[in-house]
Design a protein that fits this description.
Length: about 400
């Protein structure tokens, strides 16, 4: 196994404090949004000695990935592990299916669009299902409500825009009605003006202050989104979505096509190795509403929470319904400074292990490595079973 340095992403919505504290680094006043651990070609992690993880895998896929993973995923690491720390709301977004991503990526390549072109939507040919495990209280909106429930949320706000949406959902209380309502908010030809959005925001604030809201939480979210993205129709779209709050240790899975936006908190996120994001709003980045509407699912569904399953005395696993990844959390409570005990850590294949708290000693038949909080290691498939001792907590990304 080898130490692994993640790549910091300084997006504008990131917290200036949370990730520096987690990584044991000095804050510099800039937003630290994400740290990536993986081999995605846009931002590969670096192994001790300076080689990129992508380079190490390409040089010896059978040792690093193992025979099964190498064959199944075309000699590529199929997952990307992140720590994410939004201090402000992220964009309202969806991720494509694998089939749609492959087709669209090929089309953009054929059109001669460079990978860093501002006109490009697809940076790779992969899908991007993802799962988030909260490290702190974490809030989001995710997935559409039922049309009737959304109509109840809209009823009584008394604005031109919400009356129009309410009428649509009452007349067509179906997925098609929800798609029509959402389309009127984000499609280029129907996008409402900023003044109409601000009228809805004020109505939500007034309703919340009066204590008569059918969903005080979503009214607060609308107000929060408007503080950061005033006039953006994505603010109104939040009224159609489910609010989500995750407490530390709780997890949520986001499949392809699910409309969502993370709002605030710190979490560990694992996903298929992709950077394909189609945005509907709430961002200064590229928004392609027509392409996003091709991929979004408007079926009413509650957020998909994933309960941890006990693997052994020290580890629990979060199993997502995909073949690309799984995530486990191991908590050790050996006496301080005692590393003589060895606890088995379930998992095989290529693994990334990230320290969350304390300090543990990791061991395979190939060697040992101390893992303090905020540091990561890559464990090749050829290293075999992993054992650990010490006092601390860590996550392990692996392949089912």
């Amino acid at each position: 196994m080898q130490e692994l340095d993640g790549l910091i992403q300084h997006y504008a919505w990131g917290s200036p404090r949370a990730l520096p504290e987690f990584l044991g680094r000095e804050a510099d006043g800039t937003p630290w949004a994400e740290v990536w651990y993986g081999a995605h070609p846009l931002a590969p992690s670096t192994l001790a000695g300076g080689a990129g993880l992508d380079q190490a895998i390409a040089a010896d896929p059978w040792r690093t990935l193992g025979d099964g993973v190498s064959r199944a995923f075309d000699e590529r690491l199929p997952y990307l592990l992140k720590v994410i720390a939004p201090d402000q709301p992220l964009s309202l977004q969806v991720h494509p299916t694998r089939e749609h991503a492959a087709e669209s990526y090929a089309a953009e390549n054929a059109a001669g669009l460079a990978l860093d072109s501002p006109h490009r939507n697809y940076r790779d040919d992969n899908h991007k299902p993802e799962m988030l495990v909260a490290l702190t209280r974490f809030t989001a909106v995710c997935g559409f409500r039922t049309p009737r429930r959304a109509a109840t949320i809209l009823e009584g706000l008394g604005t031109v825009l919400t009356d129009r949406l309410h009428s649509l959902l009452v007349r067509y209380p179906t997925a098609q009605g929800m798609r029509a309502a959402f389309r009127t908010l984000v499609a280029t030809s129907m996008r409402p003006p900023a003044a109409a959005v601000e009228e809805v925001v004020q109505a939500c604030r007034d309703r919340y202050a009066a204590g008569c809201s059918p969903s005080p939480r979503i009214d607060r979210i609308v107000s929060l989104l408007a503080d950061h993205h005033g006039g953006d129709p994505g603010v109104v779209a939040a009224l159609l979505l489910n609010p989500v709050t995750l407490q530390p240790g709780e997890a949520m899975f986001v499949p392809a096509g699910t409309l969502h936006a993370y709002l605030e908190g710190v979490g560990v996120e694992i996903m298929a190795a992709s950077d394909n994001v189609l945005r509907a709003g709430l961002t200064p980045k590229r928004v392609d509403a027509e392409e996003m509407l091709q991929c979004v699912s408007v079926a009413a569904a509650p957020p998909l929470r994933v309960a941890p399953e006990r693997q052994n005395a020290t580890s629990v696993a979060y199993y997502a319904p995909v073949d690309d990844f799984e995530l486990s959390v191991t908590t050790l409570a050996d006496p301080p400074g005692v590393f003589g005990r060895r606890h088995p850590v379930p998992g095989t294949g290529p693994r990334i292990v990230l320290g969350l708290e304390g300090e543990v000693l990791l061991e395979t038949d190939a060697g040992r490595q101390l893992l303090p909080a905020g540091r990561a290691v890559f464990v090749p498939a050829a290293d075999g079973p992993l054992r650990a001792g010490g006092e601390g907590r860590f996550v392990q990304a692996s392949v089912p």
